[in-house]
Amino acid sequence: MVAMAERPTMTEEQTLEQRHSIVIRMGGESGEGVKSTGELFAQVAARAGFKVLTFQTYPAEIKGGHSVYQVRLSSEDLYTEGAALDILLAFNQEGYDKSYEELHDDGLLLYDDGAVTDFHYEQGGKRALALPMTKIAKGELKFELGKNVVAVGMLAALFGMDVEPINRLLTEKFLRKGEDVVAKNKQAFQLGFRYIEESFPERANYYLKAGAVEEDSIIISGNQLLSMGCIAGGCTHLFGYPITPASDIMEFLAGELPKVGGAVVQAEDEIASMGMVLGASYTGKRAMTSTSGPGLSLMVEMLGLSGMAEIPAVIVDVQRTGPSTGMPTKQEQGDLNMAVYAGHGEFPRIVLAPTDVADCFWRAIDAFNFAERYQVPVILLSDTTLSVRTQSIHKPDLSKIKLIPRVLYDPTASANATLDQHTLSTPVAQHGNGTLPENDGEGDEVDMELAASRGFELYQRYAVTEDGVSPMSIPGQAGGQYTSSGLEHNEFSRPRYDVINHTRMTDKRHRKLIGAAQNAPEPFRAGDPAAELGIITWGSATGVAYEALLEAQKQGVKLDLIAPRMIWPIPTQQLDDFIASKRVIIIPEVNFSGQFANLLNTHYRKDFVRLNVYGGAPLKSSLLLAKIMEYVNH
Amino acid sequence: MDVLNNNTKSQVALLERTVDDYKSDTKPTWCPGCGDFGVLNAIYNALKAKGTDPKDIVAVSGIGCSSRLPFFVSSYGFHSVHGRAMPVSTGIRVANPDIQLIAFGGDGDGFAIGAGHFVHTARRNLNICYVIMDNNIYGLTKGQTSPTSDLGFVTKTTPKGSADAPLNPLMLALAMGATYVARGFSGKTKELADLILQGMEHPGFAVIDVFSPCPTFNKVNTFKYYRDEAIDLPEGYDKTDYIAALAAASKHDPYYLGVLYENRDKATFEDHVAATIPAERQTPEQVLNGLFKKFS
Ligand SMILES: Cc1ncc(C[n+]2csc(CCOP(=O)(O)OP(=O)(O)O)c2C)c(N)n1
Ligand code: SF4
Ligand SMILES: [Mg+2]
């Protein structure tokens, strides 16, 4: 390390050019308020009319270690957390050490006065400004913890934000802690704000144009919105076991599901969580669990039971960096293989992946609808980046929600009523009786005398239907009794071991995937369908791909982009033409082996250009852009 | 019953169910002479005595010879995976507390692969009546040592004798907070039916460990062995005395049969869950609109 460098100074003539967006990063000791400063600033900016998108990394340990909270602001829509930093706010020396190199050449370093002392990097065109955050908090404010709010006040002044809506926000936020707390926080904000106004005349250079304040705007994280999507999807019961980065879904719903008459139960492990989900779903409830990779690994045997016994289940997997315990707070899209293939034997399951924060809401609803409609396990693959990304978005339009119920058993319904497998229309209750077959020695023996005394017309839990879905009875329903089992069974849910039956039932179960693929949610689509160069991606890499596409288009490149929101079954209707019509297709994903590319390669026998990053950080759009440029005239 | 007038009484009589009402048309898959027949018989009689409509009962199990039992009962059934009868039962009871839940399984299912779940289900005091058919061996996989096999027990996987000390299911149940703890013997089906009936009527987690010999693979713990080795609890035994229950549970040569412990005063898990649900229910839309406000 370079010896104690000279303290850098402000030079008046430097100005920051007006940018489309500003990226500001806060860095400091984990647990020392980096996160709360970042969160408050994001809310403040959203209230002041900015579009906001955040990113954070934090150590897996509770206290100590370096933590980063990054906020990107713009008057226009945002798709990623951005790359180079415009402003770095360092709360300690490490905040400077770890991020200074990522600061733009004309960027601005802000630091808590006295907290950074060793300015060892080449300053170049970067400027620096010491801010007396702690000093003001300890001095005039007499409340050291108010340092974060002082900092937020300073930033708000720097960007020329409108104070009025911010004051309202502070009142709303702190009111339940008492009037005193509201006053103290307002004062802290005011002191920070005034400091910049009075001592930093060139602040006007940083003024960013805010957008219009939108009435229907909310600022929310992926996990929060995903949880709300579960409520919207009719979920009443969640059974789970804490794990980063999924725990906050369970915590969020623990406060909400009782309001609709449901419950959240913390199980003893993920095997139990999944067993409880199946038990609750068996009684007709929309039930779910939320977990991350290690938890999903434990649930695998039960995943097969869900597929075999045809019991709807929703499993949210917020992917983190694996394998094993891996890096619990870091990014990876590494669970696709597990989601698609995990389990012994073969059974149908559906895998969905939201592409951005807003999408978390709608895909969660889909997850419940697909699980119920097809009586299968549905795995919803989110990831660390989406889970903690806070974004200002439009409030979802609740009138667009459509719930698809389970196909229920109704002996009085017409025996001929069949479902249209080509639409996700609301199914009607189904007649499901059939005639019990004679014993033939390839399964449990039926007492024909007893059966005869009750009549042979019985409920067929696993009636073989065109779309593979059989009407389900619910405990409490007379005449609907059956024993659900993971043993192979015939229509009447009696254990059967013969070749014909297993073949027929395997076919029946897998037929569900035909309908599911046909009803896949619309993919994310952008670019020029006529372009010869295409990108296929999925999950949170979608925003990165879109940003790269916008930049490539600016440079005159013709490019097409698709990101399916159903990963399995492969939504071939959406992908066939796209894949057939491109000269080159790039598949960027955040994993080592190119799991989605492999999946598509197996199906389409096509060589894709892969772009894989797997260090634990999200993909950068600049990297993808460079890859695109390699293939433009290639 | 006395408060019912004569008219109602005769209606009750009309509705009374027979043992046959609880039999399914699937024939048991067990070996001739298997102890589980006695348990099934006791179940039928206990269910008849309780009189619950089969449509309102769910019989849950794991995997094993014993876990096949739900197929032989005319109620709803859930034959799940090895060791997981308790989580599945928990999900059912939490989602629908009106269900009469009876769970079944073997000693391996409940105390080896499923031991963790047993502990936590007992601790939660869910309203489940759990009948363990304890044959001190793995039956379905053809004769390996089980958590209740004696030290030195010779099986195919322990040719020189088991090196594991046996687990005491009743001590475990008591230590973990089960509120009804009983032991039965499939050679005494009348008494067993009564233990199961009491277990079903008990408000909380009822554990009934049943000596249910496997004549095919266990040549030590036979019907004769248990007839000689198990006796009824002494006259005047107080089943509400927890310490006495621990002593009775720890006793062997001979073992005690009967209700070792019962505590009807402890709140169930379902009670706790119900207490979290506000009287004024909201629709999902109301909940979401409230949340949107919070995040605006
Ligand atoms: C995950 C898993 N591991 C192993 C097995 C094989 N298996 C089936 S039943 C059983 C043990 C049966 O013993 P017990 O639970 O005592 O029941 P019993 O057959 O004696 O009634 C085992 C090991 C399985 N089905 N699933
Ligand atoms: S193997 Fe043993 S436990 Fe299994 S059915 Fe036969 S006798 Fe019963
Ligand atoms: Mg056994």
Explained architecture:
Chain A is elongated, with a radius of gyration of 28 Å. The N terminus of chain A is likely disordered. Chain A has 19 helices and 23 strands. By secondary structure, chain A is of the alpha/beta class. In chain A, 55% of the residues are buried. In chain A, the strands form 5 sheets. Chain A has a 7-stranded mixed β-sheet with strand order 9-8-10-11-13-12-21, sandwiched between helices. Chain A has a 6-stranded mixed β-sheet with strand order 2-3-1-4-5-6, with helices on both faces. Chain A has a 5-stranded mixed β-sheet with strand order 18-20-19-22-23, sandwiched between helices. Chain A folds into 4 domains: 202 residues, Pyruvate-ferredoxin Oxidoreductase, domain 3; 182 residues, Rossmann fold, CATH 3.40.50; 100 residues, no CATH class; 110 residues, Rossmann fold. With 296 residues, chain B is an alpha/beta fold. In chain B, strands 2-1-3-4-6-5-8-7 form an 8-stranded mixed β-sheet, sandwiched between helices. The longest helix of chain B is centred in the N-terminal third of the chain and has 15 residues. β17 of chain A pairs parallel with β2 of chain B.
